[in-house]
Amino acid sequence: MSNEELAHAKILVIGVGGAGNNAVNRMVDESIEGVELIGINTDKQALDLCKAATRVQIGERLTKGLGAGAKPEIGAAAVEENRDEITELVKDADMVFVTCGMGGGTGTGAAPIVAEIAKDLGILTVGVVTKPFIFEGKPRMNNALMGIERLKENVDTLIIIPNDKLLQICDKRTSIKDAFCKADEVLQQGVQGITDLIFKPGLINLDFADIQTVMRDKGIAHIGIGVGSGEDKAVEAIKKAMESPLLETTVSGATDIIINFSGDVGIQEVYEAVSYLTEVAGDEANIIFGNVESEDIPEDEVSITIIATGLHDVSGTGTSKKSTRPAGSKKPENGPTYNGQAIKTAPSKRAEQPNNSSRSYDAGDMEIKIPEFLQKRR
């Protein structure tokens, strides 16, 4: 890829399911530049409310446009129905963000397969997902953890937002809508931070190649933005970025870090901020820093964006921190699966694979196989 092509990297944000569509809607409302937005859902009524320029209703034959019924196996089978269409949408992208709320049906089941399609094409693939509130119960949390585990296998970098963190930063008067908007801000900040680095001019420019170095096959990630003012503004800003209140992660133990400064900042302040970061992250981290211009930041203020990757897993799935499948390496063609179990869908170009240990789910003239691990809860 030439320098000119890198400067015009094509970035997609794909919201899968209800929560994913809502996150995309917020990005439309905030007029985020430099990205293309796509909404994917099984629920036609919900998809009609999505503001993305491109919308894909998946599993129309299977679900009749009525949603996945909080069953991840239905979401997984639904997206297989539209695999070719999604492949066509993402094939020319350089970077894809896949966002959803884990625990339900469409996002949990379909998002890992959307990510798999992108990663199989060699596209830099990033997942941004939420975990359900504890009070939503064990079945939903178990679905979420299985979905996160499945997604982790198919992304280069994964950012996890526990909804319970919203309870810590919102008071009793905060509406449900406003609370979830705060969770959506993590995706918005991550995408905005990356697009600013690539597209905005600066004294120290970073490009898409730098983004790939930090995010390719790096597992769990931390993204934060902090703003500081006054005498110690750079250290104040970096502390806020490192302590992103909606994430369980910290920068401690990160293998790679991008740090970007915007606004009024001097070389001594940069040194102090990066030194503070190194004390926490460790001196083995590969740190890339840049400086972009911004007319939106008031005089005597600085904004710092941090992207730290290669972190230890804190999602509760208990797996290693990095994806084990390199970009562009396809899985064996054994037919569609969910969490390692075969899914039987309607006849298509992709071969069906029998699974005698699974139970059938009838939906009109379609049939899928209920994975064995999900049968135990039925």
Written overview of the protein:
The protein has helices at about 5, 15-30, 45-50, 60-65, 70-80, 85-90, 105-120, 140-150, 165-170, 175-200, 210-215, 235-240, 265-280, 370-375; strands spanning about 10-15, 35-40, 55, 95-100, 125-130, 155-160, 220-230, 255-265, 285-290, 300-310, 335-340, 340, 360-365, 365-370. It is an alpha/beta fold and about 375 residues long. It has 2 domains: about 10-200, Rossmann fold; about 220-315, Tubulin/FtsZ, C-terminal domain (60s Ribosomal Protein L30, Chain: A, 2-Layer Sandwich). Helix 7 packs parallel to helix 8 and helix 12 (about 235-240) runs parallel beside helix 13 (about 265-280). The protein is globular, with a radius of gyration of 21 Å. The termini are far apart.
Keywords for this entry:
2 domains, two-stranded antiparallel sheet, Rossmann fold, 378 residues, alpha/beta, ten-stranded mixed β-sheet, 14 strands, 60s Ribosomal Protein L30, Chain: A, disordered C terminus
